[in-house]
Amino acid sequence: MKQLIISITLLCLAISSSILIAAETNPNGFPSGTHYNLNIIGKKADFTCPVQEFDPYTGLPIYGNVVFVPENGDGAIYITSGKGRKAAAITELQATDPCAFDGDGATVKLPPNTNGYRVYARVLAKPTNEPYIGLFSSLYMVEDESGNDLVFLGMVKDGAFETQNMTFTRKHGKSTALNITPMFMWTGSVCYFTQPADVTYTPTNVCCTDSNLDGVYEDCQQPATTEPVCSAGYSLIPAYCVTYSEPEWIFNLGDYVSMLLGTNNSGVKLLQIRFYPN
């Protein structure tokens, strides 16, 4: 009798769990819950970028959640966030530069979350000729709190995205969202100039130069194994390195991080992306 009761209890728990999981995902494939929306809209080559709007009372710029990319061709969207004070000023998703037509790419700021986000996307609009859009992710910039570009200085190395490319095709029928979180997950090594409090680090030394003494290094090199350890004009600087052997939320790599989300569009009018904080 006890075994029967236990079996029934476990079965009920399993059914309840299945119902709970099913309830967390909507029919459109997007999970339920709080999230930030980013709408990527494809436009013709002669599209004119919108003029920046300002709040008439505060004079501050008004930012939306829409970016415009070529409907046929390549576009660049730079998404920035991080774990430092500079990134902490971002409290809402902001398309600070919504236009990827001006050669500089669009810019989107995402509120920081050290626990990361679950990211989902789906393609919409008319399915004429089954248009498609390809996405690829690339690490563009990682800064420490002093503004040192750790990518440029070679302090970010051996990096790889869990998934770097994905393609969305608009077919007839219902469009279902796909999980693109792996495009924002990264493994590799990062070195900071200040001791990070939230990761396991290894103290090491590098040779860096700061010619104008502004605290921002112009170049860094690996120390030599013979004397002199550092070249003329370079000083031995303590650094703190961490290796992410498991995929890490890309914006946890530094105090201010920018990743390039590239688009290769072939007729897609609308791609919806949602960021769900963990």
Topology:
Layout: H1 2-23, E1 36-43, E2 53-54, E3 61-62, E4 66-70, E5 72-81, H2 85-88, E6 94-97, E7 106-109, E8 117-124, E9 132-143, E10 156-161, E11 165-169, E12 178-179, E13 185-192, E14 202-209, E15 219-221, E16 235-249, E17 256-266, E18 270-277
Parallel strand pairs: 1-4, 5-7
Antiparallel strand pairs: 1-18, 2-3, 5-17, 6-7, 8-12, 8-18, 9-11, 9-17, 10-13, 13-16, 14-15, 14-16
Structure characterization notes:
- The chain is mainly beta and 278 residues long.
- It has a domain at 33-186 and 248-277.
- The chain has helices at 2-23, 85-88, and strands at 36-43, 53-54, 61-62, 66-70, 72-81, 94-97, 106-109, 117-124, 132-143, 156-161, 165-169, 178-179, 185-192, 202-209, 219-221, 235-249, 256-266, 270-277.
- A six-stranded mixed beta sheet has the order 6-7-5-17-9-11. Strands 4-1-18-8-12 form a five-stranded mixed beta sheet, with no helix packed on it. A five-stranded antiparallel beta sheet has the order 10-13-16-14-15, with no helix packed on it.
